[in-house]
Amino acid sequence: MRARSFSPLIRASLAVLALAIFANAARANDTILVYAAASLTGVMQDLTPLWTEATGGALKVSLAGSSVLARQIQQGAPADVFISANADWMDVLEQDALIVGGTRRDLVGNTLALIAHDPSIPAQSIGPELDLINLLAGGRLAMALVDAVPAGIYGKTALTKLGLWADLAPHVAQTDNVRTALALVASGAAPLGIVYATDAQAEPRVHMIGTFPETLHPAIRYPAAAINQPDPAPALAFLNFLQSGPARTVFAQRGFQVPGN
User: Fold this and answer.
1) What integer is the mean pLDDT of 97-105?
2) Range of the domain at 33
3) Bridge partners, 143 (sequence order)
4) Do 155 and 84 fall within a single domain?
5) Residue 235 placed within a domain
6) Could you give the CA distance from residue 42 to residue 117 in angstroms, rounded to a whole number?
7) pTM of the predicted model, to two decimals?
8) Are 153 and 187 contained in the same domain?
9) 21 lies in the same domain as 79
10) β partners of residue 20
């Protein structure tokens, strides 16, 4: 039997119905505080009006490096939902019993990319023979903090596996989060950078000259969970919304890898 093909009108109606379900689960006067990895900036900008239209409630979004956000939650920051750019920082909060049991789920995936400011730099093959120092021409390689922020950790792991890190380390400019690394390359302050592919897609002043094979670093996944609060119901409704059809469409349009797509 062939799979049923829905018309655009029916698909739109189903999306509206899905949003209505979340509207029933969340109260109109709820403001949900979401702590989200900086690489989700564009996604959260797109999802905020969708959530408000569906529920009448508001989203307040705090964007930063996952490490910064996790530490703030450890120190008592009043977050309702945490979306990390890697599993490690979510593991830390789970071990500290700071997330609501059973609410953790992986939302989407991503790819690590090498970007350049100069459009004349050609595509590069990412392997042990990659001569990044020569490509830098005396400049710096922009990366998020390599021992704390997920994008930086992934990048350092990949470069180490390629045997390039020891020589490159003195030429790296580390930043608080991946979007700041992206900004350095976009402005020309750094000729090259390592960011997520979704960051490269979002910034027209850079171009992607290579992607790192996933065998060089752990799989890039974005786990989300509700943070322990007296009333977790609004957070649970938002987590379900993040896996709805309308939200999945936003993630896909922003270049994220959506399970099942």
Assistant:
1) 97
2) 8-109+221-253
3) 174
4) no
5) yes
6) 21
7) 0.87
8) yes
9) yes
10) none
**Annotated binding-site positions for molybdate:** 39, 66, 151, 178, 196
End-to-end CA distance of the chain: 21
Based on the fold, state whether residues 168 and 228 are members of the same structural domain: no
Strands (DSSP E) contained in 31-186 are 31-37, 58-64, 81-83, 105-109, 112-116, 141-144, 172-175
HEC secondary structure over 152-179: HHHHHHHHHHCCCHHHHHHHEEEECCHH
183-226 pLDDT, tens per residue?
Answer: 999 999 999 999 999 999 999 999 999 999 999 999 999 999 99
Count of CA atoms in the C-beta half-sphere (13 A) of 23: 12
Q: What is the pLDDT of residue 22?
A: 53
Tokens 């989200």 found at: 36
Query: Number of structural domains, the chain?
Result: 2
pLDDT at 30: 80
Count other Cβ atoms within 10 Å, centred on residue 110.
25
Instruction: Kindly report the CATH number assigned to the domain that includes residue 188.
Output: 3.40.190.10
